[in-house]
Design brief:
Layout (H helix, E strand, L loop, with lengths): L4 E3 L3 H8 L21 E7 L5 E8 L9 H8 L4 E3 L10 H5 L3 E13 L11 E6 L6 E11 L6 E11 L17 E3 L7 H5 L3 H4 L12 E4 L28
Parallel strand pairs: 3-8, 4-8
Antiparallel strand pairs: 1-5, 2-3, 5-6, 5-7, 6-10, 7-8, 8-9
Length: 248
């Protein structure tokens, strides 16, 4: 699973793989430097007539059938990751899957907890940073959804990250508590960004596989326990990470 990442909005990186990408309009909502569930982040989607655009959406999908704003927020607390094995049938995700509402979530890195040295770390996991060896951004496959508040008519975009089983993966298999199932986000191969955004529901399953460990870089990136806050400086005022999420 993935609950924390550093987003990227580098249009040059995206256009090298997708061609022209409509950038965010002036005055578009900003986002913090590190993303947790409930925070906003930029995502890439198809936006009509085959064009590709960046849009800002909340991390944690709000199902279209959410009855009101409070219900939508409550649902999004458990929908920031979608198991690829069941996304097509789970009530929260099946509409987005059937409607081919694929998203690319560009990142500089994501974080996961490693418990290998917990005994020497006071029984705590060590946060690890997962990135590409060359330091370039990458993109994770996701689903996006647009929820409409019936009371106000306002619309809100949200997204989830698709994940796959990573048991036995040389890098991601080392993350999370011993005995827990290992999961990792679906990293889309750089040459297949357009294929993902254009995929049919059947073709989408071809992408649901682990990214090769030799094409990733993992390294310890512990948080300073004195503050328990992300070291990155937020781009804008934002709440602290949700209390029910571990910062490792």
């Amino acid at each position: 699973m993935c609950t924390n990442f550093i987003p990227s909005a580098r249009v040059d990186f995206l256009e090298q793989r997708l061609g022209p990408v409509a950038s965010l309009p002036v005055g578009a909502a900003s986002w913090p430097a590190e993303t947790f569930p409930g925070y906003a982040a930029p995502v890439v989607v198809r936006s009509g007539q085959g064009s590709v655009a960046l849009q800002v959406a909340q991390f944690g999908l709000m199902p279209p059938w959410s009855k009101d704003a409070q219900h939508a927020r409550e649902m999004s607390r458990g929908t920031y990751n979608a198991r690829s094995e069941t996304a097509a049938i789970k009530p929260s995700f099946r509409h987005a899957w059937a409607a081919r509402q694929w998203a690319l979530v560009p990142m500089e890195c994501f974080f996961d907890p490693c418990w290998e040295d917990a005994a020497a770390n006071g029984g705590r996991a060590v946060r690890w940073r997962m990135s590409m060896p060359d330091g370039e951004p990458f993109a994770v496959a996701g689903l996006w959804e647009r929820w409409t508040d019936k009371a106000s008519g306002e619309q809100a975009d949200s997204f989830t990250l698709l994940t796959v089983n990573a048991d036995g993966h040389p890098l991601m298999g080392r993350m999370h508590r011993p005995g827990d199932e290992k999961r990792m986000p679906v990293i889309v191969p750089p040459g297949r960004y357009a294929d993902w955004l254009d995929a049919s529901p059947q073709q989408a399953m071809e992408f649901m596989r682990c990214f090769p460990a030799q094409e990733m870089r993992g390294e310890p990136a512990p948080l300073e326990r004195a503050t328990k806050t992300p070291r990155a400086v937020p781009r804008s005022d934002s709440p602290p990470p949700p209390e029910n999420l571990s910062l490792f």
